[in-house]
Amino acid sequence: MVVDQLSDAEVDRLFQALADATRRDIVRRVTVAEYSVSGLAALYAMSFAAVQKHVAVLERASLVTKEKRGREQIVRGNHEGLQKARSLLDEYEAIWRQRADRIADILAEG
Asked: In terms of CATH architecture, what is 2-109?
């Protein structure tokens, strides 16, 4: 299970990264195509430095990777990190579905 494979700190970084709408949008964009950090910054009404910080949060959560290409930093989705996130969320969903099914069973018994 992914839940058992990730440390609490890794899970915290993942949920922190996904808690922000701009970061979710960045992830969505870089899973389709790679962008330079400056290219991403042009898409948002915020400073270049703010976009850099968002990318850094996503990178710490292993949702994106950054590669230096000349003078630019190229950002792309990290398939392995995104797959871990999906597996983790799938496991949480399964836990909650089992709990809901159990509650339904208990109510049906009464």
From this structure: Orthogonal Bundle (1.10)
